[in-house]
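Morning run. Coffee first, then this:
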Amino acid sequence: MTEEYFMKMALKEAEKAFEEGEVPVGAVVVIGGKIISRGYNMVEKLNDPTAHAEIIALTSAFNSLGSKYLPDATIYVTLEPCLMCAGALHWSKIGKIVWGAEDIKNGHQVYTGDRNPFHVKTQILTGLLAEESAQLMKDFFKSKRG
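And here it is:
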């Protein structure tokens, strides 16, 4: 399986969010070439502002593994993590973070600038399938405006 394959799986999660009227962000956590958890935004559904795709996927991964750390895992997420999710990813000690589109309004970089908020050993890859991720967001907000 390729990194593009796993990002496409994250995009499928984002599409579920879109269909449910949630901001379309999706995430999958992968260890050893296998998806161990999935998540998509459920903020409206759960009436919980912390129910972001990354948080849902991380919590599921922790429960699945019985561990609070994910040094051997990669998370694929369709949108740059916000500051809250960056903090959760930092504390998870996740091995790698891959995201698609940048979030110029609410992404962690808005607040941290050049400072890396992630664990020192975490690898970062950005821009994977960024166009597809960004288009899903544009289509969602266009549909909300009428």
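The CA atoms of residues 46 and 52 lie 10 Å apart. Good start to the day.
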